[in-house]
Amino acid sequence: MMKFTFASKSFGTQTILAPLTLKLEKGTVTALMGPSGSGKTTLLKMIAGLDQDDARTPKNPLKIGMMFQEPRLLPWKTVQENIELAGPVRDLLQALDLDDAGDLYPRQLSFGMAKRVAFARAMASQPELLLLDEPFTSLDDARVDLMRTMISEAKNRLNIPVLITTHDRADAEAIQADIYALEGRPAKIRKLIDA
Amino acid sequence: MLRSPLLPLLSSIALILLWAALAYSLQSRYLPTPLDVASAFETEFTSGALVFHLGATCLRVIGAFCLALLLGTALGLALGRSPKANLIFDPWLIFALNLPALVVIVFCYLWLGLTETAAIIAVALNKIPNTAVTMREGARALDPSLDEVATIYGYKGWNKFIHFTLPQLEPFLAAAIRNGLALIWKIVLVVELIGRSNGVGFQINFYFAQFDLARIMVYTLSFMVIVGLIEVFIIKPWETRARFWRGDA
Description:
The structure holds 2 protein chains of 2 kinds. By secondary structure, chain A is an alpha/beta fold.
């Protein structure tokens, strides 16, 4: 089990997150829900070491794969090269229905394809913890199903904890996630559902 | 209808014809004809003088260009990435930008003597502020969201620079290189005119004293051709490659 403990997190004079502890089990998906601006992405970034709490808690040493809300692909690298930035491509292109896209540049991809490439990149790093920020946003129904399958496979195949943020409870339930909510201001974390 | 690649060629031929028409109609020693210049070119080339002096100038241009690009880029990136450093050193940069090239050259020669080192440093010092300003804008335009991607996947230092930073800087680097080349070779001629005993600038000064405009044109045009070749065969292909991913190459 992985345990993350943070002090409060403020931006300027405004405290966004109250002190919190989050426990993540290997081989499970945890969904973090909350309204826009509740601090979901901030918490993900604190776990990833991209941001710090007010006590400047040091970054954990875990190897992390992260998919941001926007794909954040490097536009000067092909799909294949973007994935290789994180690690070997292996069968990821095939698994994510990107077989013919390896030589394409990000400008040639739809948003949904770019998002799948970002997911493949996160997986390629062979992480100990996978963080996915709004993985289902801007995907059509078929791709949402594919993404749900991929998340489940990632959890099972790598036997790692997967932490996602989402605003749609249906998505969280579909992947049998433990559901937590960030509520109030400053936001406190509360467990809603055990998978 | 004329194809666009032909237009620059036809335009160049028209310019030469205009020059020829003017020179033949004026019949003045102050405007040599294209044939006079061609004849002077043959003499200078066969004697080896043209190659020798062009070579000396090229080496100075390369030395000053590399120095200016390296230091200007490092300075520009530092100022673009650190608002505090920019606040402190911006007045220095403005001062350096407005310092006349001639003053820098004179001071370098006075402090370091009439040496090759002084010549190259004088040219580089004139170019560093321009490069720094261009690269500072490049550093400010770097996408911070890609910095986070680099951090997540463990890219630091040189690896991060090559994979994440340099491709974003390439348009600014191309601008700095193109402007730098255009500026540097002109300053090199002044440096040679004032304090060197070889090079295109020295030769122009030498033939100026003899009112030999044909030879002045031989040296000037020859060096312009070299700069043009660098543009066509090095800078443009590099820019095309660097912009390929944008789809606007």
